[in-house]
């Protein structure tokens, strides 16, 4: 009776590690399979859905497609870039950095979905391209122009901000 209780428990037995590792490997495998299936479903569905939403907003008008595309390209590029730039300049935990990175990706989602339609090679992207050609003319091109303009504005703002910190200081009266 005392022989069974003589040794104190010092952790998990080697036999318990086998099933735990097996369960973990199965879980990781299932998560990867679910991620791949979600990706495949999204590449088929999201470009079609996005092009239909934009098509309804633009309603076949070239001027509306141009204005809406430029605004989407500009706003949904400069806001995420600014958020990332501010986030990377501050001290914070890695969890907060991941949160702000996820928020930046969410804010850039309209541009990413438009890019998926414009540059995608699947059936969903091709269907989205045809929908945008008819219902949202000029939107894809104007989004690209707005994105490029936002990148230029962002780079100029960063350069001005950095030079402002290095500007030569006015000589003080004490040295005169």
Automatic annotation (TrEMBL):
The chain crosses the membrane at residues 25-46, 66-86, 98-119, 139-161. Keywords: Membrane, Transmembrane, Transmembrane helix. This is Permease. It comes from Catenulispora yoronensis.
């Amino acid at each position: 009776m005392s022989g069974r209780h003589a040794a104190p428990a010092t952790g998990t037995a080697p036999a318990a590690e086998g099933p735990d590792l097996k369960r973990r490997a199965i879980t990781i495998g299932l998560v990867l399979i679910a991620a791949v299936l979600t990706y495949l479903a999204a590449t088929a569905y999201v470009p079609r859905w996005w092009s239909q939403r934009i098509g309804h907003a633009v309603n076949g008008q070239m001027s509306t497609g141009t204005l809406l595309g430029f605004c989407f390209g500009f706003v949904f590029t400069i806001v995420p870039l600014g958020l990332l730039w501010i986030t990377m300049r501050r001290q914070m935990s890695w969890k907060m950095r991941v949160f702000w990175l996820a928020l930046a990706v969410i804010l850039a989602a309209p541009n990413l979905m438009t890019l998926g339609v414009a540059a995608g090679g699947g059936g969903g992207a091709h269907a989205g391209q045809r929908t945008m050609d008819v219902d949202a003319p000029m939107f894809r091109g104007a989004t690209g122009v707005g994105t490029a303009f936002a990148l230029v504005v962002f780079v100029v703002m960063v350069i001005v901000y950095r030079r402002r910190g290095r500007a030569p200081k006015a000589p003080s009266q004490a040295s005169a």
